[in-house]
Structure formats: structure tokens, C-alpha cells
Design a protein that fits this description.
The protein is an alpha/beta fold. It has 7 helices and 11 strands. A hairpin with a 5-residue loop joins β8 and β9.
Length: 250
């Protein structure tokens, strides 16, 4: 009980929670056209499990006391007039960035928008709406050690390499193979260098994720355990899958 007096003692003040430094910035990449979905509506703005897909991620990261700012990178036509539901969040810790011609360009734009106090950066795909607190914790903990980290899962299926006609050429050993997810986390100086040098050496436009840009420079990136529930919504059928795995449970 607050203010209780121990026998023969003096009133005790309640313990204070440790102070958390807000030094993490988040770039949520929602700048793609979602062309594989078909139709005119962007998948990252569609509703799934009770709210727009992008809002799931935005609120999950803003719920963390160590996050200083979240940049939501939207296609140019949406960045100037974002959907009103995006403001169901901490507007003081949210910025709207403008997407680029490629994923890497969109990430670079988001990095430029982060304030100086963001010493560590998480990059997350809006198409993965169910980033769990536990996975985010693991990624940030590794990034704080001075290297990159990505959420990932080990490959458990048998892998086949096939030719253009669908004929099997070989069975691919799965030892040491992991399926990359997001978030991916880095010390800010590291990921900014990777993007800067990627633009200079021509690999920026072809990189499929941010870890790849670091790998090409020999910068260390480690995997941490991801989650099967952090599925990527790519096709129409994935919306039903996303509804089935929500709510989150590790």
C-alpha cells in the first residue's frame, strides 16, 4: 500500500518505473501500389481484423515507450491527403512520408524524415499487420548491440528448384535457410550507410529488403525468431488467412 509505514520505520515512497529513453525510430513502408492484389484499392489501406492494415502496425509501434517517431511512407497521391483513420494514433509521434519508385527509395525517404534522437531504426512492411511486441523486443535488443537484426523463421518445407516449364531440377538443402520477415532493425548510422552506398553502387533499386543492402557491404545482420502470425498479405486470399490468425498470441 502506498505510504505504508514499516515497523519502527518511516513512510516508504512507492517504487518508480525505470525511465525509458525514446531513441527508436520506425519506418513503416506502405508506399507500394499493391499491383498483385488487382483492383484500385491499396491493400495496406484495406481493413483486416477490425481496422485498416496500416493502422495495426502504426498503433503497435506507438504503444512502445522507446519509440520516438513513426514515419508512415505512403504513395505520393495519398501522402498529401492521408485517410482520416490514420490519425487514430499519437499524432505527435507520427509523420507521413512520400513513397518512391522502389521499396528502397521509399525507405530512404522515411529515414530522412526521422528526427535526430532516433539512434536505432526499425523498418517494417505495412503488409505485415501483426507485428508482436515480443518479436519487436528481440529485434531492438539485437540492434542495440551495434549490428543489424531481422525477424525470420527457419525453413521447414522441402525446397525444389524448377525450370521455366515447371520441371524439377534439384532439391535445395534447407539447412541454414530462413524466411525473412519484418521488422528489421539497425543502428541508424549503419542503415543510412547501407542505403547511401547502395545508391552509389547501383544495388539500391534491386534490393528486396534492407538486410540485403547491409549484406552486400559485409555489415553484420543477425536473425531473431519471428512469428508465424506475422504473415505478409500479398494476394486476396491472404486477407482470410490474416483474419484467422488474429488476435495475436505468441
Amino acid at each position: 500500500m502506498s505510504g505504508a509505514v514499516p515497523p519502527g520505520g518511516t513512510p516508504q515512497s512507492p517504487p518508480h518505473a525505470p525511465r525509458v529513453t525514446r531513441d527508436v525510430g520506425v519506418v513503416i513502408v506502405a508506399g507500394g501500389s499493391g499491383s498483385r492484389m488487382g483492383g484500385g484499392e491499396l491493400k495496406q489501406l484495406r481493413w483486416v481484423a477490425g481496422k485498416p492494415m496500416l493502422l495495426h502496425s502504426l498503433q503497435a509501434f506507438q504503444a512502445r515507450p522507446d519509440v520516438a517517431m513513426v514515419v508512415c511512407v505512403l504513395p505520393r497521391q495519398y501522402a498529401g491527403d492521408p485517410p482520416p483513420w490514420i490519425f487514430q494514433s499519437d499524432s505527435e509521434r507520427m509523420l507521413i512520408g512520400v513513397g518512391g519508385a522502389t521499396r528502397a527509395e521509399s525507405v530512404s525517404n522515411g529515414l530522412e524524415d526521422l528526427p535526430p534522437e532516433c539512434r536505432y531504426v526499425l523498418i517494417h512492411d505495412a503488409a505485415r499487420p501483426f507485428a508482436s511486441e515480443q518479436v519487436i523486443d528481440r529485434v531492438i535488443a539485437e540492434a542495440r548491440k551495434g549490428h543489424g537484426a531481422i525477424a525470420a523463421l527457419p525453413v521447414v518445407d522441402t525446397l525444389k528448384r524448377v525450370d521455366a516449364d515447371g520441371r524439377i531440377i534439384a532439391t535445395v538443402p534447407r539447412d541454414g535457410l530462413w524466411r525473412a520477415q519484418t521488422p528489421q532493425g539497425f543502428p541508424r548510422e549503419m542503415i543510412e550507410r547501407a542505403h547511401r552506398e547502395g545508391r552509389a553502387n547501383g544495388t539500391h533499386a534491386t534490393a528486396t529488403d534492407d538486410a540485403a543492402l547491409c549484406e552486400l557491404l559485409g555489415l553484420p545482420v543477425y536473425v531473431v525468431r519471428g512469428s508465424e502470425r506475422a504473415l505478409k498479405v500479398t494476394e486476396e486470399a491472404d486477407f482470410a488467412r490474416a483474419e484467422a490468425v488474429h488476435p495475436l498470441a505468441e
